[in-house]
């Protein structure tokens, strides 16, 4: 009887850890999306200021190419300017889907 209770507690703890992991994954996706939107807005403002006021167009210096996470790859042109953000990698992700894994043998 004690073994069954201990097994149930271990399964409950594993499910709790899995749920917390899913919350962290969701939060990371939200933060990545917010960062992408902020970069796009910054680029739009910079482009507008350049066209309206003749201000120099500065290169993107906020992230070096070797600091990009996997799936968000950039390649540089001859001038060193990034060609664009390919966006987050969504297909074939390494983490489990939204359904809870079965922990019973």
UniProtKB/TrEMBL annotation:
**What spans are recorded as compositionally biased (Basic and acidic residues)?**
37-75
Q: Which domain of life is it from?
A: Bacteria
The protein in question is named Uncharacterized protein
Q: Where is this region: Disordered?
A: 36-105
